[in-house]
Each structure stands twice: as structure tokens, then as C-alpha cells.
Sequence to fold (274 residues):
Amino acid sequence: MSIAGGEFTRPLAVAPEALALSAVGVYKSFRERESGNRQWRRVDAVSGIDLTVPRGEILGILGPNGSGKSTLIRILATLLMPDRGQVEIFGYDVNRHRLLVRRLINRVSVEASFFKKLTAEENLAYATGLYGVPNREAQTMARAILDRLGLPAKKLRVPLEQLSRGQQQKVAIARALLTSPTLMLLDEPTTGLDPKSRREVQQFVLDVRQGHDATIVICTHDMDEAERLCDRVAIINQGRFEAVGTPEELKARHGATLEAVFFTLIGESTAQTY
Ligand SMILES: Nc1ncnc2c1ncn2[C@@H]1O[C@H](COP(=O)(O)OP(=O)(O)OP(=O)(O)O)[C@@H](O)[C@H]1O
Ligand SMILES: [Mg+2]
Fold:
């Protein structure tokens, strides 16, 4: 694929047959040290993940706290370099073509990075400016998206620090869609939302896939959400996938409900992790 010219300036074509995501042998470890202790310890956050996600799929990642979900998402989003392994987004290597990949992905996470003193409108204008989306067009789209997510228009014009966490999350979702919806990496997008807002965001995720030709990878602790949204689910434990399949396949193999599947596959280690 040619990357001649400025990486930011041209519309980016992706081959229709390209996999949205291909990850082979991905490892990432961190060093951590208990306070007062001089010894460093290695934490294997992601320990050999292989994954392919075809275009248009919604893939769910379920796993206990500390199992490596956010680390994996951050690697896919080019925010962390893997120690080993190869990741391609629509055929572009995340290390070699970082800027191109950034135009094809967007990450929504609970710790959304915003300028908290600026309004939602200003933050969205800043983000879309980086991606070359005309401001007026972006504003109209943002209003429409946030309207659908149930955020009143007047909330767009107050500093973000004055919005509730769930309201800020909605702005983060709008931002992800405005800039580059091709592969959306959603790290617990509905955590902390009220039941109605959660439903709205879930419906919105389904609509984005349908209407925008988007591929979605979503981490969640909500089993119902995983069943409702995901074509396939990966169960991660201690940095490794224990199983990947459709909810029906996983239930046929490992338990009557997705929650039962989770406990069968995570087993004793869940008690240790929580
Ligand atoms: N920057 C870091 N430095 C050191 N250790 C880290 C760092 N980021 C993550 N870890 C460790 O890597 C492991 C995986 O963390 P990660 O955030 O990926 O888990 P998670 O599955 O997203 O958990 P949660 O469900 O709580 O969000 C944990 O043991 C965590 O302590
Ligand atoms: Mg996490």
C-alpha cells in the first residue's frame, strides 16, 4: 500500500478485502515495584495474543480486572509498543505506520483525555481539527450524535469538568465517531452509565457498525452487553485468550450462560485477581 505524500493530508483508502485487525504473537510486560521495596517485578500484561477481526465485526473482550484488556487496546491504538509480535490495522503495521493507523482507529476509554476547562464543543473542534474535518460539519454531526445519546445541547457549551462522568463519556463517544470511525476500540464505554444511557450507547454502537462500515472491538464487564452486541467474544485471563467464539459457540462448549462460560474459563484465578 502506498503511503506517499503527507500521512495526514490524503483520504486514506483501505483495501476492501483487508482484515480490520490482525495480531500475531503479541507480548507486553511492565516492571512494577512495591513502594518501599527495591526489587522490580515483571508483570506480563499481555502474554501471546493472536487475533484476527474481519471488517464489520463487533468483537467483545471479557476478562477479570488486570487481565490485560486495556493493555491490549492501547497496543492496538498505537499508544503502547508491544515487546514482541506484529499488529496490523487494515494491513498497516502499527509500529511502522503509526500515523496512518491513527487515522483509521479511535479509542474510547473511561479515562478519556480532554481539556477539562474547555467545553465539549471546543474539545470536539480541537479533535476534528487534528483530523482535518471541517468545523461546521463536525459541529452538526456532534450535535446529532449527542442528541441521540441523550446529552442536552446546552451541555455542549459548559466546561467538561462540570459534566458528570457519564456525560463526558458520551462526548468521548461522539469524538471517536467524528474523527475516524473505521476501527473503534471501546474500552468499557458503558461503565458508569445509567441503564438508559447504556442502552442508548449500545444501540448507537450497533448503528455505527451498520451505518458507517465500522469494525468494533469492545471491552466490557457486562455479560448482557457482550451478548447483545458482539458477533464474537474473546475471554482473556492473565494476558492470554482462553477462548474466542460466538456467544452461542462458547455457551455450547463451556456453560449455559455467558457468565457461566466466564467462570468456567477463568476458574480459580478470578478469586485471586479480585
Ligand atoms: N503502565 C503500567 N505499568 C505497570 N503495570 C501496568 C501498567 N499498565 C498495566 N499494568 C499491569 O498490567 C496488568 C493488566 O492491566 P490492564 O489495565 O491491561 O487490565 P484490564 O484487563 O484492563 O483490567 P480492568 O478490567 O481492571 O480494566 C495489570 O496487572 C496491571 O497492573
Ligand atoms: Mg481496563
Notes: Residues 21-32+40-111+185-273 form a domain with the Rossmann fold fold (CATH 3.40.50.300).
